[in-house]
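I am still getting used to backbone structure tokens and would like to learn alongside you. Label the sequence line and the structure token line clearly, so we can match residues to local backbone shapes. Go ahead whenever you are ready, and we will take it from there:
>
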Amino acid sequence: MNNIWIIAQTGNGDAITSEPMSEGDTATTSTTSQDGSPNNLTDKDTSNNKSPGLANYIIPIVMIFLVVMMFSAPRKQKKERKKLEQSLEKNDRILTIGGIYGTIVDIKDDEVTVKVDESNNTKIKMTRSAIGRNMSKD
């Protein structure tokens, strides 16, 4: 009962090797790699079982937070834009995204008629999305 045998199989599954360990080799485990060269592992080699540090927990949480913030900003802008388009009323003073100032004369579904010149009674028809700011509400 004094002899201890180690049995190991190589990665390719072809051969099983065994070798005896002497009584003084209790702290050393000897293995043979696939190419036949011996690998000696000691207790010192296997004692690197350190618990993960605090950074291993904080970094993923921070990354998730950043991803959420990246997606929430455009969603907020889209919501504000929709609110602006829905709040348009007749006689509101507006500024288009093209830089044209005017007054809303008529609103039909997605089409807005804007009066841009008082003296010539010039009107422009555009979509609600073409309006950049509502000067009356600001």
